[in-house]
Amino acid sequence: MNNDEAHYIYKPQRVTIVKRYLLVSALLTATVAMLCLYNVSVYRSYADIKRQLKESREMLQKVEADRDVLLEINSSLIKDNEELREQNNAIEEQNRELKTRMEALKKINEELIQQNNELQEDNIMLQNNLKKAASVGIKPQNYGSFGGVSRSSVHRGEYIGRFLGTAYTPSVEECGNDRGITKSGEPIIPGLTIAVDNNYWPFGTVFYIKGLGYAVAMDTGSGVKGKYRFDFAVLDKNFALKIGRDYYDVFLVRMGNGKVEDVNF
Q1: What pLDDT digit, counting tens, does each position of 64-116 carry?
Q2: What value does the mean pLDDT take over residues 205-210?
Q3: Is the pLDDT of residue 174 over 70?
Q4: Which of 53-62, 138-147, 184-193 comes out lowest in average pLDDT?
Q5: Is 1 exposed, middle or buried (0-12, 13-18, 19+ CB in 10 A)?
């Protein structure tokens, strides 16, 4: 076989080899290109992840800083809340005290109103009795005198009921002597002395008779019987008749001991 024949025989084989080489080169080039693209993509992903990680770290640091601030604020709020709670408790205690004082003042005011109403009623009754006295032309007489009631000791005492009251004068006919001396041995004090049943009320017992004022048990009488009965000493017979018989609200100021020791109570 000559050279021309050999060249003709191996020429297709060379072409095939070249093609294969070119194909392999193309594949390698494509592979390298794909790897490069993949690496670029991976790098970009890594860069993005790194950037996100950095941003997350910065955000975490900011969140931690904000958390510390919030914790500090929360601690301050808790402290302020405790102080407010203490202040609120103090205010509530003050309100309770004020309410108690207001209730006490209200009660005192109601008592004062009641006392004022009672005093007005007493004043009206006393004025009516004075008008009765004036209508019969009473003139003063010289019997025992009353020194008065001290302001510090004035009180009505305990209400003991309604008594039937009449009036008498320091005359021989009504007093039993011409000297105006009571059964207690003390002189009659018109406007203060009363006769009572000594079985119930010992001498020296102090009463407050609504409409007549304070009175002291100093005398007895045949017509004065029973626990709820009294005879009020006045100066004038006509005044006694003017008073007549009536029922009075009576208060016990002080129980006596059988002796009239001090009428200036």
Answers
A1: 888 888 888 888 888 888 888 888 888 988 888 888 888 888 888 787 777 66
A2: 93
A3: no
A4: 138-147
A5: exposed
Q: Say how many C-beta atoms besides its own lie within 10 A of residue 9's C-beta.
A: 10
Residue type, 65: A
Residue 212 to residue 190: CA distance in whole angstroms: 11
In eight-state DSSP terms, residue 181 is B
**CB burial readout 165-185, b (16+ within 10 A) else e:** bbbbbbeeebbeeeebbbebe
In terms of pTM, does the model score above 0.70? no
Residues facing 90 on adjacent strands: none
C-alpha distances (whole Å) from 187 to each of 142, 144, 192, 237, 244 are 10, 5, 11, 18, 23
The CATH class, in words, for 142-254 is mainly beta
Q: Which of 219-242 are b and which e, b meaning 16 or more Cβ less than 10 Å from the residue's Cβ?
A: bbbeebeeebbbbbbbbbbbbbeb
Tokens of 196: 């009572």
Residue 211: predicted pLDDT: 85
CA nearest neighbour of 253 among 215, 222, 196: 215
Which amino acid is present at 256?
G
Domain boundaries along the sequence of the chain: 1-135, 142-254
Query: What six digits make up the tokens of 199?
Result: 């079985």
Quote the tokens at residue 120. 């007005």
* Over residues 11-26, mean pLDDT: 74
